[in-house]
Prior knowledge:
The first copy, chain A, is α+β, with helices and mostly antiparallel strands.
Amino acid sequence: xxxxxxxxxxxxxxxxxxxxxxxxxxxxxxxxxxxxxxxxxxxxxxxxxxxxxxxxxxxxxxxxxxxxxxxxxxxxxxxxxxxxxxxxxxxxxxxxxxxxxxxxxxxxxxxxxxxxxxxxxxxxxxxxxxxxxxxxxxxxxxxxxxxxxxxxxxxxxxxxxxxxxxxxxxxxxxxxxxxxxxxxxxxxxxxxxxxxxxxxxxxxxxxxxxxxxxxxxxxxxxxxxxxxxxxxxxxxxxxxxxxxxxxxxxxxxxxxxxxxxxxxxxxxxxxxxxxxxxxxxxxxxxxxxxxxxxxxxxxxxxxxxxxxxxxxxxxxxxxxxxxxxxxxxxxxxxxxxxxxxxxxxxxxxxx
Amino acid sequence: xxxxxxxxxxxxxxxxxxxxxxxxxxxxxxxxxxxxxxxxxxxxxxxxxxxxxxxxxxxxxxxxxxxxxxxxxxxxxxxxxxxxxxxxxxxxxxxxxxxxxxxxxxxxxxxxxxxxxxxxxxxxxxxxxxxxxxxxxxxxxxxxxxxxxxxxxxxxxxxxxxxxxxxxxxxxxxxxxxxxxxxxxxxxxxxxxxxxxxxxxxxxxxxxxxxxxxxxxxxxxxxxxxxxxxxxxxxxxxxxxxxxxxxxxxxxxxxxxxxxxxxxxxxxxxxxxxxxxxxxxxxxxxxxxxxxxxxxxxxxxxxxxxxxxxxxxxxxxxxxxxxxxxxxxxxxxxxxxxxxxxxxxxxxxxx
Lengths: 351, 351
């Protein structure tokens, strides 16, 4: 993988062909791991961090990565790091630190390993649509391969040891990125978030927090990694999210029955604006895309549009726009370039 | 003329082919006249009103109207009256009164005579675009013909006598309906209104008043009908409005130079929304049409669209919509029908 090949493509896990893709954008599994005998990353000295980095580099090919797949923090510009954050390859916590830190990225970006973020290793995998089992199985495979050469910090009593106790045990965080416009519009989202919390799941706005959630996108994940095995964590996530998906569909249909004109109006105007606007801010764009996605659930809009929506969700983010179009950092310039790019990609979208 | 032939067509004076049609929608001349020896309409008894009506009916053919061109107030439904108000054929003052009152309408609706409104006769003529001279000459022609058989109330000292002193003298009110979005956006409109007042012209919002003006449409007319002859009144209107038209063009160009993306954005989004909306209120529709008209002045949008904009300005008014589509009186229903009609008429408009 080269940076250039990454920035211009859509991650394979956003091709829109997974189960329930109109509602569940993607599924993710992440395992936190640390290497026995080395201090946790926040306490580790330079040499220890280098040691971790070296062990990961040595094990890369065994875990299914090419030697060119490693991107070291210090070798990346601020803009490049921002692009990786927007693609969920690294976190802003990682980008902010110096020293031997970075990420291994497999082709298609469905598998990656963060090195020396909060933990020595964060193995992560992504799947299209609603497929947490697939994501778990993929990340487990990396884990198994790595464990042949890397000795993990593990306690018989606590399981895998991690820098933060909430990750201790399995080290697993399984999550889905889910689009819930109808539950937001009907106001049922708050009750849903409380119920999910009682069932051990955290629901967070993907863009913004609380009442400021933009684009109706939420991330739902397990709150604790301990006390259950990996499969049980994933199955419980699947059970709850399946019900939420049904609630969302039901709420969407109710909305359609009770306010059909208003709902269709919102959907079609959004397409009209995406086809014509000369200026589009990130926030407005995300809201418009959300309305079109609702249109797919309601079968007003062809589901063949999901890949385009996912593509734009990735490429129209600020750092991506700068890299793709050479636009400057100023929002007015980016907003104009964003509108132009989207207009071109929407030329063939029929009204 | 039949009611049915009127309600489904566009008045000939809105075909959009007159001078400066992108900015000046239409020009109007109106002469107030009363019949000698009969009390003014607000003091006249039933018999006097009948007498006026009879005299107008007798003179109709001489003035260039067919005998079938008379629409009597009492013979019209509330909805039909509303349609006539929306077409500027009658006033709400006329529609509200009973007794022998009504309007003579010539084919194309560019000439009409209100009977027993504030004055016994109100002769009016409309022209496309910026053509007050043409309007005056047309209304003068009706006046001359009528005066052969109808004896007007006239004083050598005051000129034509009218129910309200502001109309006394020539009885002439000459006006233009003018679209001034750039002067509104730049805030110069207030200064322009004050200057026009000092020059004896009244500027009023066409939809709404003051800061509530919707759609940036204004009516500019002479304030007094006395002390000058008809030609002088019209020439002075032309002189001032010509300058306002130039100011508007200049303001539009400045807007385009200083905020090109935002201006194009507003214009093209408006077209996008007109092509896609499923619900459109009167107020929103008028604002959208205003933005498209600005696009014509700025040559972003083809001037061939003016007739369509004028057509919609007439036919999308509430009473017209009810008559054309059978929509009920409720706004949600009308707003949905309006959006559907406009979408169909915008199908061939290219983005």
